[in-house]
Amino acid sequence: MSMFHLIFFIWVLLTSSFSLVIGFVSWCPHHLFHGENRKFEQKIDRFWEFQEETNTWVEVELPYDLISCVNDNCSKVGSIEPTSDQKESPEKENDSPRKKESSKERDGLEESFDDIALPLRKRISMIKMSETSIWITAESGCIYERFWNGVQWAIAPHDLPISAGYAVSVFIVNHTILALSEAGNLYQMHISENSEPIWIEFPPTFDQSIDTEEQSSAVLIKSGVISNDRLSIYFCTKNGTLLELSEVEPTRWTNHGQPPGANVAAIADAGAIRTQVVYTISSTGDLYEYDRSSKPSWKKHIWKEATAKDASLKPAKGSTLYGLSGDQSISLFLLTKGGNLVERRLYQRKWKWVVHGGPKDQHLTSISQTQVLQEDSNDKFFSLFFTTSSVSVFEYRISKRTGTAQENQVLESWVNHLHPPHAKVARGISGLQFQVGRTLFALDDGRLAELHLSGIGGENAGPTYQLSFRRKASMKYVWTILDSPETEGWNAEYCNEERGPTNCIMGIKDEATDTGITRPITRRRKGSEQQTYLFPSVGASSRQLKSLDDYTYPDNWIDTNFRLRVMQGGRSFFLITDGGFTFEYLYAENAWIWLRHEHPTPIKGALGNYNGSLYVVDAFGSLLIRERSSTELAWINCTAFRKGRQVLGGPPWDGEPGRATRVTMEDSLFFVSRNGRLLQFIVALRKFKWKDCRNPPSTKVASIIDQEIFRENVVFVVGTNGRLYQYNKVSELWHEHYQSQHLVLSRLPGTAARPSSTSLTGSIFMLSEDGGLVEYHWNALDGWNWVEHGTPHKGVTLVGAPGPSFEGNQLFLIGSEGNVYLRYMDQMKTTWKWKDCGIPGNLNVEDQRREEGHDRKQDFCGVEDFAANSEQSENLHDLTSNCNPRVASTRPIPFSEDSVIFELRDGRLAEMKKVEGAHWIWSRTIGTPTSPCTENYWTALAS
Questions:
Q1: Which stretch of 121-130, 529-538, 644-653, 919-928 has the lowest confidence by average pLDDT?
Q2: Which strand (E) or helix (H) includes residue 4?
Q3: What is the DSSP letter of 486?
Q4: pLDDT over 80 at 117, yes or no
Q5: Average pLDDT rounded to a whole number, residues 702-727
Q6: Identity of the highest mean pLDDT range in 62-76, 259-273, 869-883, 918-932
Q7: In sequence order, what DSSP letters do the residues of 220-234 get, joined into one string?
Q8: Which DSSP symbol is given to 302?
Q9: How confident is the model at residue 31 (pLDDT cuts 50, 70, 90)?
């Protein structure tokens, strides 16, 4: 490329606020012609705009203005006009939009999926262990088993040890289970002395008398295929050689090497065509045959020149079918790198290449195992299932009628089964047929989907053994979405040892209670998952996005929601003042003192706490870390790191009170950027790294509702449009939750309440735009449900973010009149109730109710001798005009598992404690360095 072209290319990038991709022919010439009158010529009329909000390419209509935006000041710098051919044909120009519009109407929801290029989920795999057991390696690197326990499908975890890393596949041979890690190491499952399954490293070992470079160094495995007789496993190493494991006890490994002048990139077939004959594919796309009993052992299958178009094969496992062209014929179906289907057919001892192509305008990405469906005595269907780059599943149906001239009686057809609603099929992951008429597919979002014949499959259907279908009406396929465990950010609960339907060994239907009522089996309501998780609309353009988000943050938004942060439960918390000062309230040497942390710029809020380090944001939006380095305290500017951004919000909580936080290799903190995007800041092992998670299409992120407290690997956010969304950290996908159009959420942070870490049942609490309490509840029976709790009583609205929550059934809220309210679950009646906790002081709550003129019947928090515990001894009526004991709308914090800290309107702090197991009382007030209400306090300067 000449310097002139390079300068022009850079000018286009710098002056355009978007990216365009040009099809077929570039409008820059490939050669530089000498002359003063040379110019760039536009050859085509199709251009695409890249939308960062949706991470997709969208075709634009001409003429199209080129806009340059700098600091929100946008100006036109040029335009792309239709070519002369298009100008001369106005009829075509007028017809084109109508065709596009009608096409959109036909495709409906499909349009938003088909144009999106999906990432390749390299860790996902599925294997059928038995008729009742399927093992899955998920995108998170975890292993789980989906098995039928006699009552329902149950989930059991089988994760590799943390030191092994991520799992990518599982194998079974001679009743031995092996797992392959992403690093290329094998592990064998053993049963420990405590009858617990454990993974032991299982490295390949060879005959020491054979000295090869492969054997003298560590052997790293790339992939593997179980032989057709299930007596051995063939592996492909990362160095491109073929290994065989034929026995486990005693271990017997064989190194078969690689083809001359080529390597083994994938195993296409292992013993299905001929016993102990393996077919492999090289990285260049050539098919090889390995037969240890022949000389030479390796043979290459050559394409004829007439059929050599798109002859480079995709390195992936193929699918074998018997009797397609005769009783003695065997067919190996493979995919090419161009996304087409080809067949290597063996008939009457002769090999033949057959090109089947593919559906129109489709690119095949994976091939599933074959299945045979017998409709009547003279009609047999062979079916192959494929995933495509358009996130759909296609069936290649081959109908063969018995009789003479069988090879001429083969009829072929492609059937499009699309994909489940609001979900995409994972690209390049083969489906798994675990029963005739039932095939599992991995979804791009981490869940599974079953494509099954109507009436014989689905989430609640166990294994059946029906092998023939005599009516053509039964050939209708339907989709059922199957949930995945929490490791993937979903809602499938693990089995347990309790007697009942979810038992890990044998499920038992719930028996009738004393009242004669039988409890239902624990399973989700049919269709609830599909109706709850919606794929965010991608229809809005970047220009429409600005008009949809007119929401502006209040000036004190950060101060109100991130003024307080717990550092060490019961011993230390931080306070950010209106003046930008950072104070730490610390218990040291049997005394409480205020410690001041100085910084050159004013601090606006405390956004997070991880591993003893405090994350704050300054007045310029920079994310800073306050941590101890050796014997001194230090500040670290995270925004100055590569890809660092300015932030204005973070996670509301750093964990649940009284519950230990599990440390992982993927630990991160999530923040909201100033332009409404979700940012991930990886903090594990101090390998600080920023990642832009973008924002849901058609809206921006207003605040984080919950980060990984309610669901592992899931961040719940509220958009500036007042709707609830979630971001999955594993799949890196956004989902919108079903929400009534009449329910608009406030843009404040929320609170997650999960009573037990062993159960996924729980709730997310938020405020509505009109100041009412809203609960988003999940349980295994009903799935997700919205519950509106309203307000404590008429005339009072709720202000500030809800929380904190304790034990999953107690939630603190602040009323507009300055009182604290407790929303709690009455365990006797299993109903939610309100309790008025009033304000701190030694004024009796009954007197307070009469003073406020409340005639309502309502529970009140307990009353103790507040003055004896308070740092002040003045009566409430004797306070100075600078003191106001009403509670401010500042988001409170859980100081410990039985203590809450609130901020008062006069700048002081007040603490509530839980006594006698369930009663909350006001314990004390805490004077602050900046409160106008006179208090005594100790302060020191941190260094």
A1: 529-538
A2: helix 3-15
A3: G
A4: no
A5: 97
A6: 259-273
A7: -EEEEEE-TTSS-EE
A8: P
A9: very low
What count of Cα atoms within 13 Å lies in the side-chain half-sphere of residue 175?
2
In terms of phi and psi (left: phi > 0; alpha: psi -120 to 50; beta: otherwise), the region of 640 is alpha
* Segment (H or E) for 259: none
Phi, psi of 784, rounded to the nearest 5 degrees: -90, 140
| DSSP H or E stretch at residue 543 | helix 542-548
Q: Residue 215 is inside which H or E element, if any?
A: helix 213-216
Measured between alpha carbons, how far is 717 from 635 in angstroms, rounded to an integer? Answer: 29
Distances (CA, A) of 337 to 281, 333, 365, 428: 12, 14, 9, 12
Phi, psi of 620 (to 5 degrees): -95, 0
Helix (H) or strand (E) holding 102, with range, is helix 90-107
Cis status of the peptide bond prior to 296, with omega within 30 of 0: yes
Return all residues near 224 (Cβ < 8 A) that are at least 6 apart.
Answer: 169, 171, 180, 233, 234, 235, 236, 267
Walk across the sheet containing 266-270 and list its strands: 266-270, 277-281, 287-291, 298-301
654 contacts 629 by C-beta, under 8 angstroms: no
**Are the C-beta atoms of 929 and 586 separated by less than 8 Å?**
no
Structure tokens at 749: 């942070």
Strands 319-322 and 298-301, bridge-based pairing = unpaired
Beta bridge partners of 68: 75
Task: Find, among 180, 181, 169, 198, the residue nearest to 189 by Cα.
Answer: 198
Yes or no: say if 149 and 507 are a contact pair by the CB < 8 Å rule.
yes
d(CA 367, CA 393) in angstroms, rounded, equals 10
Q: Are 192 and 199 in contact (CB under 8 A)?
A: no
Residue 581 has pLDDT above 70, yes or no: yes
SS3 content of the chain, % helix, strand, coil (to 5): 10, 40, 50
Question: Environment class of residue 169 by beta-carbon count within 10 Å: exposed (0-12), middle (13-18) or buried (19+)?
Answer: buried
Decide: 168 and 160 in contact? Cβ < 8 Å.
Answer: no
User: What is the pLDDT averaged over residues 488-504?
Assistant: 93
- Minimum mean pLDDT among 24-33, 210-219, 372-381: which range? 24-33
pLDDT band at 207 (very low <50, low <70, confident <90, very high): confident
| CA dihedral sign of residues 102, 103, 106, 107 | negative
Contact 296, 409 (CB under 8 A): no
Question: For the chain, what's the residue count?
Answer: 943
pLDDT, average across residues 476-494: 95
659 contacts 613 by C-beta, under 8 angstroms = no
The residue to which tokens 């991995």 are assigned: 442
pLDDT at 52: 61
